[in-house]
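Human:
Take a look at this sequence-structure pair and walk me through the tokens.
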Amino acid sequence: MGKLPETVSTVQQLDELLSRPREELVDLVARLDGDILIIGAGGKIGPSLARMAARAVRSAGSKAKVIAVDAGRLDSLQADGIETHQLDLLDPAALRKLPKAPNVIYLAGRKFGSTGDEPTTWAVNTLLAGDVARALGPVRVVAFSTGCVYPIQHVDTGGATEQTPPAPVGEYAMSCLGRERAFDYASAKCGLKVLHFRLNYAVELRYGVLMDVAQRVWTGQAVDLTTGFANVIWQGDACNIALLSLTLAQSPPAALNVTGPETISIRRIAQQFGELLGRRPIFSGEKNGMGYLSNASRATELFGRPRVDVDRVIRWTADWLRHGGATLGKPTHFETQDGRF
């Protein structure tokens, strides 16, 4: 993987780290048949994943193409040798132009702003997924989902496993389960091989649970401890696992929880940030032990521990924030327990 730096000082350096493929991924791409299609490549995770796939293809000496599709422009990916298509797949005419490939990563989805605009959320998360899934044909798909399809868990349970029955809270989570069911239907009817990639939560230096806590400590805002625990995984590790998971797609579909192997204490990481940033954390609320907690033991068994551990990301994040690094300005609302995003 290469040596990890002590600090990350530029967006370019961050993007390189987020898109750095593991050796296992390069080996897989060398054996993989056909092109890799990434649908929804313009979001928070899509650009890193597309660049990682392209880097793995180049390192493997493969002739496969990496193809990125999104409703927004993807000009920044073209310089990395990625074929891009700007398509609003909610438009049936655009859907007919969807490129074909035997290996698909499906990232399209909507979370923030769901409350108050529920019809659009259902259209993007469920209706679109069904239309795309049926259009793809009998290919392999890693379909991004969320740990929010599970009921909230008490920390003492160790988190939801893949055997925990879904019981989504709120319309966003329900629409995500609808997305899974749309892919299940296409698998049964069209022979699609699917892995539901239940991610919970990806972090990097511009966004995520750790940045949310760090910003509150840095600016003197109270850190709410009601949801006192969380699971996180470095986004680069999540991208590696997503691409490696193409080999796990099957019919009927399977599910995989993807997050870090540990449950982190929000109080503890706030205190760490306080020490690193020279600030005294302020706390509010009383933890009730509940939250969207996932058990990723199976992913850890299959792919090993994340290459970038939580303590390193905390140090990187504190340094990034202290030196005025850019952020995406999108709080995760990890504190939410009522499903309202």
